[in-house]
C-alpha cells in the first residue's frame, strides 16, 4: 500500500499487468487473403500489440479502397460493452482521428474487429528517428497543440472518452503533414464500474500510474502526453521526469513547456492540470505570436534542491534559505518555494523585509532571490516556467505524498534532522519508513552536530552523505559556500564547467 511518502514500486505493477495479459493468449496471426466479415481481405500486418494486431485490408465492395482493421481479443463478459463502445466510436468526427466505419462482432475465437480509415505516412517514432532524434521545435509545439486538440475533443464527449495508449507508435504523421492518433482500438469511456480496464491497453513507460491499478481517466491521457513529449525532447531517452531527464532536455525547449511537461507527469492525477484545455491555452500555434516560441531556453538547465525536515524546529526553512542565497551568489536566477502551506514563514519574512503584507502578490525578492510563499504544488509549473537557474523547495515536514514526489525528483534532496541522542528516534522512524527506497543521492544534514554524531548516523543510515552544518547567523547573505560545499558541490561544479567552456570560446 502507498505510504504518505510515495507510491508503490512500479515494477510490481508492471508485472501484475503482464500476468493479467498472459491469461488470454494472443490469437494466431491471420494469413494473407483471409476475409474478415465477408468483406475485408487481409493484405499484411501493420502492427502488433499485447492483445491483437492491426491489418491492412482491401475492401471487396469498394475496389481500390484500403482499411486498417484492428483485431482485439475480448472476454465473453465484455462483448456487450465493447459493442456499445464501438458504436460510440463510429460517431466520432475529428480531423486528427481516423474515422471508424465498421465493427464486427466476436468470432469463434473471441476476436472483435474494428474497421478504421487507413492513414499513410510514418509514426512519430519513425519521424523522430529521421530527424536524428531532434525534430524542429516548431514541429514539437505544433504537435503538442494538435494532440491537445484531439484529446480535448475526446474528453469533451459525454461520457468522456480516454484514449489510454498515447505513445510515439500511435501518433501518425501523414504524407500531408497531418497528425493523427491511430490504433484507436476499443477506447474506454469513463464512469462508475470501470475497474480493471487497462490490462488490454496502455504501454509501460507511457501509461499513467493509475492505469497500473486498473483505472483510467481523462488526466491519464495528459500523463501520457507528458511522457511522449519528454521522450521526444530527450532524444528518446526518458519518459518519466527525473533530474537526469531534465538535464537531457533539448536546450532550446522553452521553460514554460518544460514546466508543463513536468506538471503533466505528476504521479497523482490531482497534481496535473485540471484539463487538456489548460495545456492548449499554454501552447499557441507556431508563429510570431507564440508565447512558447518566444520564451527562450533559460530554464532548461534548472537545478532543483528540495529540503525536508524531520521535526518542527529542526531548521529546515533556515537551511533552505541559506542554500538559496548561496546558490544565487554562485550565479543565475534563483527562487525558493514554500510548499508547506501551514508554515507561513515566508509571509513573515515579507512583512519584516518590506514593511507590509504581500496581499495578492505571488512573490517577492530578497537579496536577489525570488520568494514564493504558500505556493502549493499547483504553482510549481509557473515557477519552473520562469527560467530560473536554481529552485530551492522548502518542504517543511513533507507530510504530503505529492510533496515527497518533488523531493524524489530533485537534483539534490536534503533531509534536515538532529544529531542529539534524544532525537535519534526520528531518524530510526525515517529509516524504517524509507528502507526499501533507493537513496544514493540523498543528503542528510545535522545542524551544529559533533563529528561523533556524524559518524554514528552514517553507520545507522548506511550512507556517507551525512554532514554537519555550522551556525549560519545570516542565511540571507549568501556567504555560506564553504558550509554547503559538501552538500551542493555538484551544483557548483556545473557552474565551473560552464565557465571554463565559455572561456575556451573567447
UniProtKB/TrEMBL annotation:
GO terms for molecular function: ATP binding; protein serine/threonine kinase activity. Gene3D superfamilies: P-loop containing nucleotide triphosphate hydrolases, Phosphorylase Kinase, domain 1, Transferase(Phosphotransferase) domain 1. The keyword Secreted does not apply. ATP binds at residue 70. It is an enzyme of class 2 (transferase). SMART domains: S_TKc. InterPro entries: Kinase-like_dom_sf, NEK_Ser/Thr_kinase, P-loop_NTPase, Prot_kinase_dom, Protein_kinase_ATP_BS. Residues 40-287 form the Protein kinase domain. It comes from the Bacteria. Its EC number is 2.7.11.1. Keywords: ATP-binding, Kinase, Nucleotide-binding, Serine/threonine-protein kinase, Transferase. Belongs to the protein kinase superfamily. NEK Ser/Thr protein kinase family. NIMA subfamily. This is non-specific serine/threonine protein kinase. It comes from Saccharibacillus brassicae.
Amino acid at each position: 500500500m502507498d505510504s504518505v511518502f510515495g507510491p508503490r514500486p512500479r515494477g510490481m505493477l508492471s508485472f501484475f499487468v503482464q500476468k493479467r495479459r498472459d491469461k488470454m493468449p494472443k490469437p494466431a496471426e491471420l494469413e494473407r487473403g483471409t476475409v474478415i466479415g465477408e468483406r475485408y481481405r487481409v493484405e499484411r500486418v501493420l502492427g502488433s500489440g499485447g492483445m491483437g494486431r492491426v491489418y491492412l485490408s482491401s475492401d471487396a465492395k469498394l475496389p481500390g479502397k484500403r482499411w486498417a482493421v484492428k483485431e482485439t481479443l475480448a472476454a465473453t463478459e465484455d462483448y456487450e460493452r465493447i459493442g456499445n463502445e464501438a458504436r460510440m466510436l463510429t460517431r466520432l468526427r475529428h480531423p486528427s482521428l481516423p474515422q471508424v466505419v465498421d465493427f464486427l462482432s466476436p468470432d469463434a475465437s473471441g476476436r472483435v474487429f474494428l474497421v478504421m480509415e487507413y492513414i499513410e505516412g510514418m509514426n512519430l517514432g519513425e519521424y523522430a528517428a529521421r530527424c536524428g532524434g531532434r525534430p524542429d521545435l516548431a514541429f514539437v509545439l505544433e504537435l503538442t497543440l494538435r494532440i491537445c486538440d484531439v484529446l480535448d475533443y475526446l474528453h469533451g464527449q459525454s461520457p468522456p472518452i480516454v484514449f489510454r495508449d498515447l505513445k510515439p507508435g500511435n501518433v501518425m504523421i501523414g504524407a500531408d503533414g497531418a497528425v493523427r492518433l491511430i490504433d484507436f482500438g476499443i477506447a474506454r469511456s469513463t464512469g462508475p464500474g470501470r475497474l480493471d480496464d487497462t490490462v488490454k491497453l496502455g504501454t509501460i513507460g507511457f501509461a499513467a500510474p493509475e492505469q497500473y491499478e486498473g483505472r483510467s481517466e481523462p488526466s491519464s491521457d495528459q500523463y501520457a502526453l507528458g511522457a511522449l513529449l519528454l521522450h521526444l525532447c530527450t532524444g528518446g531517452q526518458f519518459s518519466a521526469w527525473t533530474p537526469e531527464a531534465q538535464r537531457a532536455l533539448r536546450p532550446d525547449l522553452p521553460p514554460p513547456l518544460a514546466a508543463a511537461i513536468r506538471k503533466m507527469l505528476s504521479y497523482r492525477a490531482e497534481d496535473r492540470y485540471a484539463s487538456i484545455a489548460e495545456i492548449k491555452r499554454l501552447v499557441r500555434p507556431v508563429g510570431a505570436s507564440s508565447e512558447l516560441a518566444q520564451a527562450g531556453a533559460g530554464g532548461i538547465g534548472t537545478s532543483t534542491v528540495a529540503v525536508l525536515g524531520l521535526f518542527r524546529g529542526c531548521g529546515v526553512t533556515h537551511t533552505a534559505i541559506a542554500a538559496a542565497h548561496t546558490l544565487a551568489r554562485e550565479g543565475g536566477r534563483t527562487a525558493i518555494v514554500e510548499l508547506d502551506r501551514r508554515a507561513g514563514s515566508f509571509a513573515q519574512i515579507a512583512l519584516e523585509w518590506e514593511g507590509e503584507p504581500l496581499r495578492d502578490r505571488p512573490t517577492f525578492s530578497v537579496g536577489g532571490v525570488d520568494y514564493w510563499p504558500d505556493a502549493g504544488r499547483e504553482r510549481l509549473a509557473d515557477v519552473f516556467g520562469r527560467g530560473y537557474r536554481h529552485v530551492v523547495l522548502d518542504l517543511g515536514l513533507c507530510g504530503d505524498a505529492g510533496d515527497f514526489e518533488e523531493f524524489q525528483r530533485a537534483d539534490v534532496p536534503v533531509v534536515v534532522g538532529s544529531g542529539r541522542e534524544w532525537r535519534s528516534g526520528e531518524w530510526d522512524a525515517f529509516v524504517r519508513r524509507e528502507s526499501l527506497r533507493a537513496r544514493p543521492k540523498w543528503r542528510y544534514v545535522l545542524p551544529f552536530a559533533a563529528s561523533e554524531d556524524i559518524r554514528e548516523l552514517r553507520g545507522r543510515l548506511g550512507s556517507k552523505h551525512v554532514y554537519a552544518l555550522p551556525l549560519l547567523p545570516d542565511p540571507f547573505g549568501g556567504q555560506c559556500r564553504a558550509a554547503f560545499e559538501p552538500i551542493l558541490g555538484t551544483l557548483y561544479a556545473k557552474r565551473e564547467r560552464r565557465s571554463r567552456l565559455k572561456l575556451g570560446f573567447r
